[in-house]
Amino acid sequence: MPDMPVMPRPLLTNGLFAVLLTTCLLALGGCSNEKTPRATTPDPRAHNAMTFYRLDGDRYPGDPVPPGTTLLHGYSVIKACGIGDRETREEILNAFEAGIADHQGGIPIDCFRPRHAIRIVQDGVTTDHLICFECSNWMSWTNDEQSGGGDTSDAPRRTFDRILDECTSSN
Questions:
Q1: pTM
Q2: Counting Cβ atoms within 10 Å, is residue 157 exposed (0-12), middle (13-18) or buried (19+)?
């Protein structure tokens, strides 16, 4: 058997240490306890007219409507705010999308008592999103026809309430 070259011990130890250190640093570089921030790509819907609503989720569609009440898909409008600045429209849409992404599943409850709504008018098409945080559901209407829906978390509620509390009603 031919003689194997013998490496000096410090070179072997230092080389092995360097490889292990590099591997550990590369592995740890990708780890973090923090969530990856959401993409900050501008939402094209934020270019369009938006109205943000506070609804009376305690009055069901079909219940008697007090005189002078404005309805949105059968729910009484408590407050309607035209959202004029793009930054606030982005904040509302990002919060809405974050709630959908953050939903953890569970057993859906069939209450649908929406207290918030987003209306977007884009290229002559009106899209309304009504959100119920009690049952973690949202429903969409496109040009007054129900067109979709899904689950949401409670995450957007604070953002929605803050924006509605700060706005001047256009109702």
A1: 0.72
A2: middle
